Amino acid sequence: GSKLAVKTIKRKENEHESDYKKKLESFKNESKISNSICGANCSNEFVSKTLGLCDSETRSLLLTIDGMKDKVIFGPFLFNEYYGGGSLDKIKNALSEIEFRIMTNNIKKGIDYIHTQGYTHNDLACRNIFLDDNLTPKIGDFGLACKIGEKFPHTKIPIYQMAPEYFIERLSDEGYKSQKESDIWQYGLLILELLKINDLLL
Q1: Residue 76's closest CA among 123, 129, 20, 122?
Q2: What residues act catalytically?
Q3: Residue 87 near residue 126, CB atoms below 8 Å
Q4: Nearest residue to 119 via CA among 96, 149, 90, 99
Q5: pLDDT one-digit tens code per residue, 163-174
Q6: Predicted local distance difference test score (pLDDT) of residue 73
Q7: Which residues pair with 79 in a beta bridge?
Q8: Crossing angle for the helix pair 97-116 and 180-201, to the nearest 10 degrees
Q9: Under 8 Å between Cβ of 112 and 35
Q10: I want to staple 113 with a disulfide (CB 3.0 to 4.6 A). Which of 32, 44, 89, 193 is the partner?
């Protein structure tokens, strides 16, 4: 059968009920945003496709995991397409100049598509770019995504990759509001990150 990428969350031992509920609500929100951006009607080949979601904690799956015995896990679940090339930060072979240009240009096309859907990604980095068997990039992991112009709700964020306006506006009464320009800042950092990764492979 076909392989799927299945994302879920688990309650940690001794985790407080209120903390788990916040984590669960964040996961459900991510699932809905992923489905809205790149669900069944997605027309862009450079974002990770969401195939479905299940927000019930009582539903279970029997998963066959490579190299392991079958394992039963409980929901909630987010189902995405599986990409055999892994993530961009783990790329094994150096890209030529033309391959590098094509890769980064295609990632930008994916970013533009996300923006046309009314959202910002807010966590653009090589670790969140997945590759199919032909090394076509797929933007994934929408855990920090939110609607353009909305107050940015997240607190656990990668501070080092946030745009300068985030640090200024978060101190205001209204707080930082999600904007496309911040994604472009992160896209620039992603290119620098990929340049460094590529140099180490040459």
Answers
A1: 20
A2: 123
A3: yes
A4: 149
A5: 998 888 887 888
A6: 65
A7: 6, 52
A8: 160
A9: no
A10: 44
